[in-house]
TrEMBL record, chains A, B, C, D, E, F:
Domain HD: from-to ranges: 163-279
Keywords of the record: Hydrolase
Keyword Transferase carried by entry: no
Record's protein name: 3'-5' exoribonuclease YhaM
Highest taxon listed in the record's lineage: Bacteria
Pfam families hit by this protein: HD
PROSITE patterns: HD
Stored InterPro entries: HD/PDEase_dom (IPR003607), HD_domain (IPR006674), NA-bd_OB-fold (IPR012340), YhaM_exoribonuc/phosphodiest (IPR050798)
Gene: yhaM
Length: 319, 319, 319, 319, 319, 319
């Protein structure tokens, strides 16, 4: 996979591994069933049709399966499409891993987890420290790979922990400038604020909302967990309530999903840090391939604005 | 207390028991301390000044104390005021109870609780039944006397259970008309939707928001409790999640404090029933003393509207 | 019409009666005119092309005509289409009625009218009774078949009277629970609130807004009619004004089309009952074919929400 | 009434006629009843206390009575107050008329009515002409003296007809610039748009909302009257509907009280002309006494703005 | 160009001059490049495909080039399309001018400019006069041909000056009715309010936003220019500030792009006049081809309303 | 001024210097003029009445004069008031300076200016550097003492430069974390964003809006100045436009006073940094004197929230 599927042109022949992101059955005009496959690697996605399928193909070529494929890139109504010549599901022999086929955070998840744990070590309030440590440990496995969202920002493998680590560094530098801030609270708030997403979202490959995600949401799920953790760890004291409030209020306004607005200084700052990091991520990606003197695509979650790259800024490296 | 403090005119002399709702110290222009007492019985409130107090008076005449008082009703800048001639705190000998000095629901709290329990018995889903029973039992004592709000509607002793019982009857008659409704869910939702208020509000006498009430709110508190109850009772299954959603969404919109809107039919109906009962209560009280052909005072939580009593309607009985 | 057009698959041959809902002329690439027909029966709709038409066909195959048709169900770009082999307009000989080709209320319109009249008989205020009786009589014929809306809820034949009857039962049960309500007013409000729709909408087959419907709307039209009826019946007294206000305010807010908000208790309750019945209708239909554990389609007039059917609820019968 | 009550200083003795705008009974600290009178002439208002009243005084000195009064202007907590030495109600002998005691339009009401009738004569569509003529005649007496509002703009005697005449001249000049406008419609819309205020408001002296004004509002009242007038005059045709729409939509948006927005060109222009004339009136009065280089008081119905008078503009004449 | 491209039917052969409004390269299914041309004359636009192009064609047939073309009008999926038989770019020999191929104002631009200058001559405040004269002169050339917008209203050649002239006549007639208005300010405000559009928009042929138009907007651009002009002309005094405010506030509200609302009477009137003229233009065009008794297309910038032409109005001439 | 006026109790006698913040003439009930003085030092304010004044006193005891005063602190309706025994204006002999009587930033203004200049030195884009340097120099004197607002945040002497310096440090630490940010742009945006306040506000002592502040606002004023500076310095290039956009858009939304939203990444970040620093300042001050476990006063510009200080936080030092 030297080049990646996104770099192939119409007319190229390809032989490569690709991940099936979705598979949908249709009936052709000749009455025979076929599959529309959405195939991806780290660089992007391409559509392919698998014609004249047998019944067993429907259960073989499903979402999250990695396939080995041979075919040609064609033009179909202005879109690239992969014409399949041969396709087979991979086995252990192929030695391929899903993570290699999905866009992911630029840092190693385990290094990021180490950094989170380092921040936890720095806390001086033992109640906050124990609660945070407990919840990180409980969800550690999923935290390593969960995206931070299904779209808009940090919607890639390990996006959640990447978002947390960026926010921790931001929190540290802001707390150094405004020493009245309680660092323990702020770090714990950063680490826990979106941790409920490991239950709200179905996972890194096909990221969808779970039923409890839709009916309760990641905020309520994590507020509940903080309460349960305190019971389990037999931690009393206002720290529990305050941490629950930090998570509950981090969307800032009831219209944005927080039934209570931030009523503690660190909660307000947590909301702002979250906002800064999410928008930096959106803006950097929107401008990634934009030439100086030109405008980006519209960014929906930023009021549909289109950003300008000043003509005195540098060209993107890989253009 | 034949007549009640609200029925005395300027010029009357009174000798009666009254409850201190609040007590606030001030310094007179002669430099001496005094107390401004807000005194109440079931019929209303009156202000009194206690001049020239001794230090121990500050700790004697405090909120929730019932006092025996002699004095005259005077006019002070257009308001009635009680000029105190003698005042003493009551003891067991006086045989007076706080409940007699506060406005309260028109039904007996224990009868209402029996009715709630009757509705629980009618449930056929055992998980919903056990969860609801458990939580009612846990908060039974406070449920008997808690108001449903600090103002606007059902803001009196036992207001919460009175609101619940009215809603249960309403739920029953609606469910009979629309048989697709799940009565178990609807009844459980009615019973639990505001139960968190026993923790959000400080109690029936001086009803204020508690700290956890302000930082988390009654909705989040009860959602948490449902989860904890399920753990304790070892109840699994989607009923837990669905009940949590019923409580979470009963304010209807995120702007009104529900981070998720109702996504289950019974949750939407719960929201509507809550609305009907709360508004009926507000409207009945606003119109209570209004003569036919006249308008009520403005009702703040109903967009500040003033209601009209048609001239062909009857006069209030006790006018 | 044993099965209904909606139950035919691609490949089926059909011979049946269908109603033309709309007919639109086009010019084919060979320069010849053709008609695009939208055909329906109670179960649904299907599109058909009538190629190579003669001039008289344009006036024969028009909206509201019932045709006898033979043809095959084909696939056209993923949609079912009816390929016409033979088509003829029906005559009296065919003994078919439009009502059989349109979705309609589940109760008999005449039974529903009897129920409305029964409610009118129960009124004790003679002015309200006479006004209501007069207006129902005046529009009786159209009331029997009018839909309650062009879309969203009760948008079927006799939908209006079905909506009224459901609301009357709801009004009765609520008035029994809150005896301070004036039943006469409430029933009259329910019966008249949407009666202007018989003038606002063009009728049950092709339900569109009339010009007076667009320029004045059903609320203003009925408020005017109440005034005219009172003149005609020589009824004086505030009942006229109050009934006009009930109709005027039943949308609840000026943003929703009521220039005055409800200022009478029964007007507020009318608004709420209308809301409950409309939403129950929308929700029941959205969930009709949804399996337990799954979500419905989005419901546009309910803030585009998608509803969840709990997994412990029953499967739809006819799935 | 050479000077007017507003021009008297503290310390002056006055002997003059004044109109009682309101009269309110109170009980003095000595237990005796007194009246608080709000007295006015064209220049303004002053408060007076009538102490030690006899029972018959309560029914003599009531709202809309003109009194002859002798007294002194005093200062009471920073406000001017009239200390009454003698007071008596006037009789026919005094030859005083209410109109002389109220602020009023700068033109003669009968001249303005002549102008309105002249505009009606210029109409060429006989249906529009007859409807307009009929309704003006019906309400002619009240139209001559009604204010256009209880506050904000044209809230003085004959304010309504003054507003109409200004708008007619504005309509004429705009219609001359945009000849596609239908002058008949526009003039009729101007004349009828606020005519319902003669029923919505209680009259020129104590201008309050009537019950039908509160429950239906001037827009709905006039829309009804146009319909009734058409029946009475046996006028058919779309002109009736279109005129009703003009009145119905003239507030421009449902939030502002028009259940339908303007859907006819002349209706949109009517809304704009209304806006221009109302705001010119507000702005002129707000700036009347402002010196160049200074700001006016806040104007509530103009989003609470305060207007600036440029320093190169002229000083107000009478400063 | 007797008839214009908009009046040709499918099947016609045409030989005419047309302006290329846009040209976009595509790759056909046979792998060869082609151009999609959007061609226009004063009457409208048509699409054409230029197949099998040579590399030099890509730079020849570009936006703003006038071509001589022969071809046939065909139907392509319900849209008219021009099948090109021969095409060549024009030269000086063809004696064609771009202005002839674009919709434009119904008056001669130079006559309109004379009228603007006439209004400037009528001003009596020399500072306002000189500033206005200077800025008109500076942008005179572009003012003659600039549209007033890219869409919605006056979006044609010379649309800006046409809009200004209409508003000046409107301003004059309003100022005559309300003599308290400062005509100099009002006229200057009208002339300058949208003059920044000559920099905000790229020009009359392909009207797009410039970079400074997007980053600052026409309001800020013109406010800056007024300041610079005052420096250059060495004009002091509040007139400069007041004129800047007139331009700054003419959108009326911050949500509509004016950081300050109108705080001067003439600024408020300017905002209203702008609104009247823009809406008259939109409404006249929306109704141009509508038959009496029918509704127009939806007008997006007027809250998406559709306007009704009363059935007693006249038919459009050219229908 | 060891203690400061805010620390004196009712009953204290004082002899001290105080600054007159405002002086207002009134007429006493005995007809004699008096002055109501608002007096302040760094710690707070107190009211005093100067009775029986001579005409020259009105011009002596005016705003911004420092007086030497002897008197007693009294209680007047629950407020402290200073009863004046003797008062005289100060002269050079008193050696008192206004700055000593006003709340001010905690850092030395000249040190802060040095820091700003240091940041300018670090810029590498010479155009941005020169423009920023020029404008800082031009307004240097006022920048040293101007507040950042009339209320809400940084509303003290040198509040503007204090706000700028805090934001610069914040900008630096954020830019270090997100290296894609253009530091030059960000620093220049921070330094210039509120610099227009030196013209919008009247100055540090009696901080009111100037006329140009009200009619144009600080944003428009500074955008104009950047343009003028570029002309003067003969700087071309997009840097000018981009800097103008940075200032123009820094309020984030049109409703908040920015006619264009941020369309450049650094502009968005500038808006966020401004928000963080302003809110930290508001929150720190609101919580300054709050005890752990208690709530602050309501903070109006933060949606009227009241902040909670967790009970595990420390007590304020000086309580």
């Amino acid at each position: 996979m030297k080049r990646g599927i996104n770099h192939h042109q119409v007319g190229d022949s390809v032989e490569t591994y690709l991940l099936i992101k979705s598979s949908k059955k249709g009936i052709a005009s000749n009455g025979k069933p076929f599959l529309t496959l959405q195939l991806s690697d780290k660089t992007g996605e391409i559509e392919a049709k698998l014609w004249g399928i047998a019944p067993e193909d429907e259960t073989t070529f499903v979402s999250t399966v990695i396939v080995h494929i041979q075919g040609d890139i064609q033009d179909f109504r202005g879109m690239r499409q992969l014409k399949i010549k041969s396709i087979r599901p991979t086995t252990g022999m192929d030695q391929v891993k899903i993570a290699e086929f999905l866009p992911s955070a630029p840092l190693d998840p385990n290094d990021m987890l180490d950094k989170v744990i380092q921040y936890i070590f720095e806390m001086s309030n033992p109640k906050i420290q124990r609660l945070t440590r407990h919840l990180v440990k409980k969800h550690q496995e999923k935290l390593l790979e969960s995206p931070a969202a299904t779209k808009n920002h940090h919607e890639f493998v390990s996006g959640l922990i990447y978002h947390v680590v960026s926010m921790l560094d931001l929190a540290k530098s802001i707390a150094n400038l405004y020493p009245s801030l309680d660092k323990d609270l702020l770090y714990a708030g950063v680490i826990l604020h979106d941790l409920g997403k490991v239950r709200e979202l179905s996972g890194p490959i096909v990221s969808e909302y779970t039923i409890e995600g839709k009916l309760l949401g990641h905020i309520t799920l994590m507020v509940n967990e903080i309460g349960e953790a305190a019971k389990e760890l037999e931690i009393d004291g206002e720290e529990v309530l305050v941490l629950q409030h930090m998570v509950l209020s981090h969307h800032g306004k009831s219209e944005w999903g927080s039934p209570k607005p931030p009523l503690i200084k660190e909660a307000e700052i947590l909301h702002m840090i979250d906002n800064v990091d999410a928008k930096m991520n959106m803006m950097d990606r929107a401008l990634e391939h934009v030439m100086p003197g030109e405008f980006s695509e519209r960014i929906f979650p930023m009021e549909n604005r289109t950003l300008y790259k000043p003509s005195f800024h540098e060209k993107p490296l890989e253009y």
